[in-house]
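Retro notes, item 3 of 5
We never archived the inputs for the arginine complex last cycle. Fixing that now. Sequence and ligand:
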Amino acid sequence: MDFKKKTLEYLVDELDVELSVLEELIEIPPQRDMGDFAIPCFRFAKILKKSPAVIAQDFADKLDTLPEFIDRVEVAGPYLNIFLNVSVFNKTITSNILESNDLLKFDWGSGKIVLLDYSSPNIAKPFHVGHAFTTILGDVLARMYASTGYEVVRINHLGDYGTQFGKLIVAYENWGDASALEEDAIKELLRIYVKFHDEAKLNPELEDQARAKFRNLEAGEAYEYELWEKFREFSLNEFKRIYNRLGMYFDSYKGEAFYIEMLDKVVNLLEEKGILVDSQGAKIVDLEEYSLPPVIVRKSDGSSIYATRDIAAALYRHKRYNFDKLLYVVGQTQELHFKQLFATLKKAGFDWADNMEFVGFGLVKFPEGVKLSTRSGDVVYLEDLINEAVSRTKAVIEKSNENSDDPMSQEEIDKASEIIALASVRYTFLRNGRERDIVFLWDEILDYEGDTAPYMLYSYARARSILRKSGVDASELKNADLSILSENQEFELLTEINNLPASLEQALKHNEPSIFARQVMTVCRSFSRFYNQVSILQADTEDLKIARLALIEAFSKTVKAALALLGIDTVERM
Ligand code: ARG
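Structure as it came back at the time:
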């Protein structure tokens, strides 16, 4: 039941005011003692020729028979404040949750197609923490769109094309180790790539060889193509192992290379649209009217660049999926590139370019002096980061397990550590506005008391534990008398739970998962207040105990569904 809607309907019936006007005016006061809803009456003063305060009083007088779900109305100056009946609210929200099989599922998208371009690591290069940002944001947006009735296509636009492949082929011929490649492709490819650069300094001829190899690759020569394919496949297998660990998948791995054979067509198309100009042998699109620098579509040697391949990809995706929305989850550093991409398509007359959106994010930083056991130099591998989170988490659990009267098995500890560590890393990328930079501080992201995933998981685990301890079974909870839930903490918790859908809606509107993530955190904080301040197993009556356990069941069910939207799994204890 939507209490706001119900309230509006009641007001429209009793006061002589249009629904649309009230919908615009109704507010949620900042404090509960000012009501659950308020109608500011300033707007009516001119028409009714009375002061807002008098109008508020007139309204209140008209509301003399209240529906069951409204407890009272009060006038406070120019405001009409409406207070919900706490026990009706608590009972309704709790029982709705207990009965629901599809919490946080909606049909807002009604079959609209959303394409998400995210993660998109580069073949033969490490999967570093910068890619973790796009990977996690993209995955969560995919989950949110899918849960709200959109048809989602998860696209991994692999960086599997470029002149570096010519270098890799030369390097592999000279110094490559087939079995090392099979074992740890990225490590081996990185090793020979670095070696190539070192050697090329002494022997510049290598660069010429690499260019020749790349030309062969572009021409589709079998030998070079097969090597490239091997590098791609082995690298992708490693990426897939990471995706698997993160519990995610893609519908398409069509990377940059896929679009190469379409490039001639793209150039011809843009030529036909009359937007290509020659510039020193290259073909470019002038974007001055968009106040953007020009974009090169074809270089003077006939080859393409990153932007050309993105133009081809957009055209292909439109043809292939006829999308309603195409979102690019890519670091802010590439914002200009995407502005140019969208402008080029607009200039070519493709109005559907308005359905493409750049979803940017900030940088990932590590405070100076923080040592991470990385495999090489300056990039931080996502896997190393996760492994370190796991071992730190495990240490904490093992320590608290030592003096537990019901210790966890090693297997349970291992499983829980993996789940909690992955959750901690995920939440670090989700808790703040995505455009903000992230500074990775271990103590901060793993703190059980902080703004962290462990905090949320711990509140879930506490809920589960008290349900287990109570010995009360599910059927008893179903029959609980929920109308006796009348404490403020109960009302507050259920209010926050009831606000989850609106925050999900806002999160999608702005492609900003943090809006929803923060509300999930708020729910967990309200749960802690309830849990710490209200007696549960020691409640005054048996009925009250059962009702509160039912509320806890509703909380745990909700938080599990909400965390699932963030890609976070739960643990029964920790
Ligand atoms: N591979 C690129 C990188 O690692 C990201 C690709 C983003 N997607 C796109 N369609 N350009 O920076």
